[in-house]
Structure formats: C-alpha cells, structure tokens
Design a protein that fits this description.
Elements (H helix, E strand, L loop, with lengths): L8 H4 L12 E7 L2 H10 L7 E7 L17 E8 L9 H19 L4 E3 L3 E4 L2 E13 L2 E12 L15 H4 L7 H20 L4 H10 L6 E5 L6 E8 L5 E4 L5 E4 L3 E5 L3
Helix pairs in contact: 3-5, 3-6
The chain binds adenosine-5'-diphosphate.
Adenosine-5'-diphosphate binds next to strand 6.
C-alpha cells in the first residue's frame, strides 16, 4: 500500500474541521524552528489561530534549549499561536491541554494507547513519541501571546542510539505507517476544544483527562529542579495549575512547576 503523506495546506485542509486553529495554516518544506517562525509572526501582529507546520526542522528545540530531532517526511512539527489573555500563572494549562489533545488524537487516528509524562511528553510503552514546548509572552500578569509547539514522531523508522527513549507511531505499530495530515487535523481539533474549555473557565474535564492519561501520577519519581538539588519522592497529585505535587520520604510535599521528572521503578 502506498501512502500519500504530504503535509501541505491542500492535504490537511479537507481534514480540518476547526474554527480557530489553522486559520490561517502555513505549511513549509523546511524551517529552522516552527516556534521561531510563529514567534516572529506574532510580533508582526499575526492573529490567534495561526498554525505553522514544517516538513522538516533544521534547528528544532525542546525545553531548556535542548534539540529536537525533526527529519523530513516522517513527523508533524507544528506551532500554534494563541492570545489567551490568561493569568500568566495559568500558562502551563496550555501545555496540559495540548498533551491531552495529542494523546487522544494519536489514540483515535492510530489506535495506539498514549500516556502523558509530566509535564510535556507523550509516551507510548514507556518511550517518547511526542514533545510539547510552550513559550509565552506576558504583559503585566497576563499571557499576551503563547506559542505552543508540538512535535510528533509519526513515521520515523528508527532513532540514533543516543535517543533510546524515543519512539514513533510507525515503530509502535510494527512498521505500519500513519498518514500525517489527518493526525495533524485531529490534534488541532482536540486542542481547539480544550482551549475553548480553558477560556470558558471549564478546565476541569481537561484536567481530569490529563490525570487519567498521566503515567507520572502514583509513581516513584526523581525530580531535577532547574538550578537546584535533585530529590526523590512519590508523584502524588497534579494541582489545577499543572504543578506536580511530590511527597518526599520525610513527608514534606513539594510543588514542581519546572524541571525534569524521571519515573523510577518501584523501590
Ligand atoms: P524532556 O522534557 O524529556 O527533557 P524536551 O522537551 O526537553 O524533553 O526535548 C528535548 C529532548 O528530547 C532531547 O534532549 C532529546 O533527548 C529528546 N529528543 C530529541 N528529539 C527527539 C525526538 N524526535 N523524539 C523523541 N525525543 C527526542
């Protein structure tokens, strides 16, 4: 079976049933970073809903300046511009909503069961198939612009040995590819629905779904806070703002808002 898998406006358009996201939609053969393109567009006044998708990124980024491998033809590398006017303290909710959208869209389109590792990774069978990078600009204490970057390894045949924690939908489906255009459209529709709930102050169902999909909650974790000492504990709960609540062995409970959290096997 040949798979027509172009990731162009013409290929995605017929699948796209959103009102806001992807209106407009710009598809590029290659760019350094779709988040960077959308940030620039935001500075020149681009409207909320703009989506930029690239077939390849030459300088894709993860959190904390880490690189995100984005080869041509096999992934969805896309960034979404939002202007939510939310309190800056709620910005993390955009990442949670995007993670739920990606995990649910993957399940609907590919049949694979995906989970969410706090805060921004979508996992299948313990390995990362998607990452989300949200960058916000604030004015006063409000989010004036948010760029939500989503990378999904769709048909990546294999990963270099230094990326043992990575996987793709193709790998998890035993070599059967997934068409990228319908998956991209499904992610955008789900994210739009969650975003509307967020704006309407009805975020609870999205949070509940996030909790249900979480592979971090209830697990023993190692927390590596940015610029601070690592510590271990139980990932006990997720607060409404997306912070992870970790109970240390001393009984002390800490809220984690940024940093790395790795899941440990039960001790
Ligand atoms: P994490 O939140 O897991 O630290 P980031 O969002 O920072 O991840 O993403 C960057 C990291 O993800 C890189 O350091 C690398 O280990 C890994 N990585 C890079 N490209 C990919 C990819 N295409 N798929 C899965 N993992 C990747």
């Amino acid at each position: 079976m040949s798979l027509d898998d172009a990731l162009t406006e013409a290929a995605i358009g017929p699948h796209l049933s959103t009102c806001l996201l992807g209106r407009p939609l710009i598809c590029l053969p290659a760019t350094q970073s779709t988040n960077a393109v959308v940030r620039e567009q935001a500075h020149s006044g681009a409207p909320e809903g703009l989506v930029v998708i690239a077939d390849a990124q030459t300088g894709g980024r993860g959190r904390l300046g880490r690189s995100w491998l984005s080869p041509p033809g096999v992934g969805i590398w896309m960034s979404i511009l939002l202007r939510p006017g939310l309190p800056a303290a709620d910005a993390q909710r955009l990442t949670l909503a995007a993670a739920v959208a990606v995990a649910d869209a993957i399940a609907a389109v590919s049949g694979l069961q995906a989970g969410i590792k706090w805060p921004n990774d979508v996992m299948i069978a313990g390995r990362k198939c998607s990452g989300i990078l949200t960058e916000v600009e604030t004015g006063g204490d409000r989010v004036t612009a948010a760029v939500v970057g989503i990378g999904i390894n769709v048909n990546t045949p294999s990963f270099a040995p230094d990326l043992t924690a990575a996987t793709s939908l193709l790998i998890e489906r035993g070599g059967r590819p997934v068409a990228r255009a319908p998956l991209a459209a499904a992610v955008l529709l789900r994210f739009e629905q969650a975003y509307r709930q967020l704006l309407a102050g009805e975020f609870r169902p999205v949070l509940d779904r996030w909790r249900a999909l979480s592979v971090t909650l209830g697990r023993r974790v190692q927390v590596m806070p940015v610029g601070d000492q690592p510590y271990a504990g139980w990932a006990e709960a997720a607060d409404d703002d997306g912070a992870l609540r970790v109970r240390l062995d001393s009984g002390e409970v800490r809220r984690v808002l940024a940093g790395d959290v790795s899941i440990r096997s039960a001790e």
